[in-house]
């Protein structure tokens, strides 16, 4: 009996280190401060830092699957420790182009938060500690934030292949909340530059 399906898709095998998130078989996509300096609240601090060094804020490995609704896009994300002024290092953050798609993140190492907000005005911050999974519900923009002084924040993520990335909305409006260090601890405060 011939059991070969009409379309055959090869199983894809990739690797990533379960603590560092680094992959040997894939090239990382890297975002340095210069690629997102205008997203930080303290623009003077961002400019001053850029004159010294264009630091690597985060990198991620996209394991490379097709962008179709039946597929699951996945990879690892590594946000390095550091601050711009009082604001912790973070990813750019995005809505999904297909707003009604969720995402799951599993924290492999480090410490931080997933900051989320939806167009209806709700916002939430879920803690990342190793071994905990954060489910980003449909319609929520999401940004990873590293609140450790020393350790990278490493997560594994998975989302529907057809979700797409809408970076423009956050680039224009920003997130409603910022995560800053206050008395040595992370605190979420209103973003004075947030645009309704
Ligand atoms: O896409 P951003 O906001 O730059 O953040 C990076 C992370 O988010 C993802 O796009 C997944 O949501 C990953 O590819 C990556 O780890
Ligand atoms: Fe996403």
UniProtKB/TrEMBL annotation:
Family stated for the protein in its record: Belongs to the archaeal-type GPI family.
Stated name of the protein: Glucose-6-phosphate isomerase
Top EC group: isomerase
Catalytic activity line of the entry: alpha-D-glucose 6-phosphate = beta-D-fructose 6-phosphate
Record carries keyword Iron: yes
EC number, UniProt record: 5.3.1.9
SUBUNIT field: Homodimer.
Record has Cytoplasm as a keyword: yes
Signal sequence extent: none
Annotated metabolic or biological route of this protein: Carbohydrate degradation; glycolysis; D-glyceraldehyde 3-phosphate and glycerone phosphate from D-glucose: step 2/4
Domain (Glucose-6-phosphate isomerase prokaryote): residue spans on this chain: 30-181
GO terms assigned for molecular function: isomerase activity
Major place of residence: cytoplasm
Subcellular location: Cytoplasm
Keywords, ordered alphabetically: Cytoplasm, Gluconeogenesis, Glycolysis, Iron, Isomerase, Metal-binding
């Amino acid at each position: 009996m011939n059991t070969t399906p009409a379309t055959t898709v090869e199983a894809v095998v990739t690797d990533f280190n379960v603590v560092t998130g680094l992959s040997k078989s894939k090239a990382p996509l890297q975002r340095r401060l210069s690629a997102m300096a205008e997203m930080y609240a303290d623009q003077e601090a961002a400019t001053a830092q850029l004159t010294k060094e264009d630091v690597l804020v985060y990198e991620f490995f996209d394991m490379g699957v097709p962008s179709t609704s039946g597929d699951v896009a996945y990879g690892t994300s590594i946000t390095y420790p550091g601050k711009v002024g009082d604001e912790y290092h973070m990813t750019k953050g995005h809505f999904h182009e297909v707003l009604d798609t969720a995402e799951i993140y599993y924290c492999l190492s480090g410490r931080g938060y997933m900051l989320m907000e939806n167009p209806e005005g709700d916002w939430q911050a879920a803690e990342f500690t190793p071994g905990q999974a954060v489910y980003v519900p449909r319609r929520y923009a999401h940004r990873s934030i590293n609140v450790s002084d020393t350790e990278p924040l490493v997560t594994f993520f998975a989302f529907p292949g057809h979700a797409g990335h809408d970076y423009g909305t956050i680039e224009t409006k920003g997130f409603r909340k910022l995560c800053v260090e206050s008395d040595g601890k992370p605190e979420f405060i209103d973003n004075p530059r947030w645009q309704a």
